[in-house]
Amino acid sequence: MTDQTSHKTAADSSPHSATTLAVVAIGGNSLIADSSRPEIVHQWDAVHETTGQIARMLESGWQGVVVTHGNGPQVGFILRRNELALGEVHTIPLTLVVADTQGSIGFMLQQALNNDFRQRQIPRETTTIITQTRVDENDPAFHNPSKPIGGFLDEETARSFESRGWHVVEDAGRGWRRVVSSPRPVEIIEIEAVRQAVDMGWVVVACGGGGIPVVRDAGGQLQGISAVIDKDMASSLLSVDLGADLFLISTSVEKVALNFGKPEQIDLDQLTVAEAKRYRGKGHFAAGSMQPKIDACIEFLENSGNPRAHCLITNPQNLHRALAGETGTRIIL
């Protein structure tokens, strides 16, 4: 497509435009509602719950929706299968593991959404775009692995993997997990394909797992690099590039909270960027849990250029209620 609409930026967004575009970021863990039942059949149940809510968004007037998703548990399962199969089959590099999960989870979301659209008689269809995300090969994150992947382990089990080269950390009081390097995303390689698909009316699944991490070599050629990009930060960049009105993060809690998990917990209905920064500085948002989501919202709002831009954070079952202003945490500039 070569028409001018395929090259819109956030700065082109007008408060008088009829287009309403939302980027909905689904957490990888939210696809596994019960950690004791991670099997695919139960992941389908979680997918159907989320896609039903997204279909309701279109029914209620949202004209464009782009869906992103996490893949931490799913990547962990594949890496574990790699280890169990050593000596029997070749291992799979992390770049291809991310690509595999983009395809498999994208397929699940795509099929479920299209079935929802057919059932509700919504004249829309979904497509999945396998997405690469460029990072800086000199990013200091490569010297400080910090991104949790895989399932939760007890400390003894987690530390037993350190002899195999794993880096493991305690994750927000929920257990121990493996961590890998997580460089900042600087470019969505397939952004024009996503933009054109949205302009044509497709519901798009993109940036799965943050995108496949790539760098450019001295000759400008793309090549994969072993890392995992934070899904929320990549989704934030995507939201800025698309000039989205809403960046919605679907996670495991209904609202952002102060003193999370403590008797004095306070659920928040709304936050400004200044308040979010202040609470972050006081340590209210756990690294590897809520902090990356808050960081991603701040990045989006400070770089959007869209006067309608806002964020919502809530859990899958409350997406529609949050959009109606009944729950969730709204973040504004």
List the helices and strands and how they pair.
Layout (H helix, E strand, L loop, with lengths): L20 E6 L13 H20 L4 E6 L2 H13 L9 H27 L5 E3 L3 E4 L11 E7 L1 H6 L6 E4 L5 E5 L4 E4 L2 H9 L3 E3 L6 E5 L5 E3 L6 H12 L3 E5 L6 E2 L7 E2 L2 E3 H9 L9 H13 L6 E5 L4 H5 L5 E4 L1
Parallel strand pairs: 1-2, 1-12, 2-9, 3-9, 4-10, 12-16, 15-17
Antiparallel strand pairs: 4-8, 5-7, 6-7, 10-11, 13-14, 16-17
Helix pairs in contact: 1-3, 2-3, 6-8, 7-8
Protein name: Carbamate kinase
Family: Belongs to the carbamate kinase family.
Catalytic activity: hydrogencarbonate + NH4(+) + ATP = carbamoyl phosphate + ADP + H2O + H(+)
**Radius of gyration from the alpha-carbon trace, in angstroms:** 19 Å
Shape category? globular
What's the mean pLDDT score?
89
**From the coordinates shown, what is the CATH architecture of the largest domain?**
3-Layer(aba) Sandwich
Helix content: 25-40%
Instruction: Tell me the name of the CATH homologous superfamily of the largest domain.
Output: Acetylglutamate kinase-like
CATH class descriptor name of the largest domain: Alpha Beta
Order of helices and strands: EHEHHEEEHEEEHEEEHEEEEHHEHE
Total beta strand runs: 17
The low-pLDDT segments are 1-18
CATH fold-type name of the largest domain: Carbamate kinase
Whole-number tally of structural domains: 2
Number of helices: 9
The biggest sheet amounts to: 8 strands, mixed
| Percentage beta strand | 15-25%
